[in-house]
Design brief:
Strand order of the largest sheet: 3-2-1-28-29
Largest sheet: 5 strands, antiparallel
Radius of gyration: 21 Å
Shape: globular
Order of helices and strands: HEEEEEEEEEEEEEEEEEEEEEEEEEEEEE
Helix content: under 10%
Number of helices: 1
Strand content: over 45%
Length: about 375
């Protein structure tokens, strides 16, 4: 009897050891339609090594430069960063269903009624999609139907104003937007007006300026992307033209600026064109991409007051790092180097947050957007 129990236990251990992981990690990559790019690429990702293996590609020759996956991991929404969609002076957003294999199936496509949409976000409940039209300086808001497709545009919010840079800031340039975790606020960054805007949803379903309509960034800094701390009490804004991170703290019902910290090493006098920003999953570190300097800036973050300290600027082993992503396990950071046509992988030191190049570099035409999806092989998925 004891021998039988031993063999049953041994077989169970071997079965578990040999069984494949119940999760499949996918990385979706958005591109510009140049250098032979075919559209949106899908890769299998090894979470232990950071290695990518191309799995499929979704044809799209309309600059699918940014997309977002809904929280349920069932649909993907991609902008087309163009100005001539369907004979209109407009870009567009396309809704895709994510199939069981991870491949994308187009549902529908709608005009943004603004030029060169460069960013899209999805509300926490998955029911609202917002595109940021860079050249036109506007936000296009859509409701999602029962099949995950886009309904006709619900609202177009037009920003107004300019900034001190006579070349880059003659008019508004909406660059990104996100919802707060509770979905109560829609937050938008505008490079042309040096402002972070706040909107709330009215009883009629339309978005209107919140009680705090905006926060101003330093003049001429050009806010681009931003990220929230895990507790939602701090907002970290990547200023493209100023190559610096501005930290905002929530005080009662408003956000207040507490500091602005350079993302470049002291003495650097080259091109300033910073791009993306993300916090580590545990909120201990902040990472930001520097185009021109071609690096990822690493900051330590003080949990009590949200302040930052620059501890590393790691070369990206590529040219013009645009978007980057931290993998779902927080072990690796992957960078889309637009001009050198490659994606590079870096291991994250779990103690100090610093990056080290793994040697992994995946060639791909003009990569500019990276998003992970963890699919449970028993069904379902979740976006990261």
């Amino acid at each position: 009897m004891k021998t039988s129990s031993f063999f049953i236990a041994l077989i169970s251990i071997l079965f578990l050891a040999c069984s494949p992981s119940k999760n499949e990690y996918l990385l979706y990559v958005g591109t510009y339609s140049v250098e032979g790019s075919e559209g949106i690429y899908g890769f299998s990702y090894n979470p232990e090594t950071g290695i990518l293996t191309q799995k499929f590609v979704t044809p799209n020759q309309e600059n699918p430069s940014y997309f977002e996956i809904n929280p349920a991991g069932t649909h993907l929404y991609a902008v087309s960063e163009v100005s001539d969609f369907n004979r209109l002076d407009s870009g567009s957003v396309t809704a895709y269903k994510i199939s069981e294999s991870g491949e994308l199936v187009k549902i529908n496509q709608d005009a943004t009624l603004g030029n060169h949409p460069c960013h899209v976000c999805v509300s926490p409940d998955g029911q609202t999609v917002v595109a940021s039209n860079y050249t036109s300086g506007s936000l296009s808001i859509y409701e999602v139907d029962e099949n995950g497709g886009l309904r006709a545009m619900q609202q177009l919010i037009q920003h107004e104003g300019s900034g001190p840079d006579s070349t880059r800031q003659l008019g508004p340039h909406a660059h990104s937007s996100q919802f707060t975790k509770d979905g109560k606020l829609l937050v938008a960054a505008n490079l042309g007006t040096d402002k972070i805007y706040f909107y709330e949803r009215a009883d009629n379903g339309m978005y209107q300026p919140a009680s705090q309509p905006f926060v101003e960034m330093p003049g001429g800094f050009g806010p681009r992307h931003f990220d929230f701390s895990p507790d939602g009490q701090f907002l970290y804004v990547m200023n493209e033209m100023g190559a610096a991170v501005t930290v905002l703290q929530k005080v009662e019902n408003s956000f207040q600026t507490i500091e602005t910290v350079s993302s470049l090493p002291t003495g650097f006098d080259g091109i300033k064109a910073s791009a993306d920003i993300h916090l580590s999953p545990d909120g201990r570190f902040v990472y930001a991409s520097n185009r021109g300097h071609n690096s990822i800036a690493v900051f330590t973050r003080q949990a009590d007051n949200g302040r930052l300290k620059l501890i590393q600027t790691e070369p990206t082993r590529g040219d013009w790092p645009r978007n980057f992503v931290i993998d779902p396990d927080g072990k690796f950071l992957l960078v889309a180097n637009q001009r050198s046509n490659n994606i590079t992988a870096f291991a994250i030191d779990q103690e100090n947050g610093k990056l080290s190049f793994t040697g992994q570099s995946t060639e791909l035409p003009s990569p500019v957007c990276l998003k992970f999806l963890v699919k449970n092989k028993l069904g379902g998925g979740s976006s990261h």
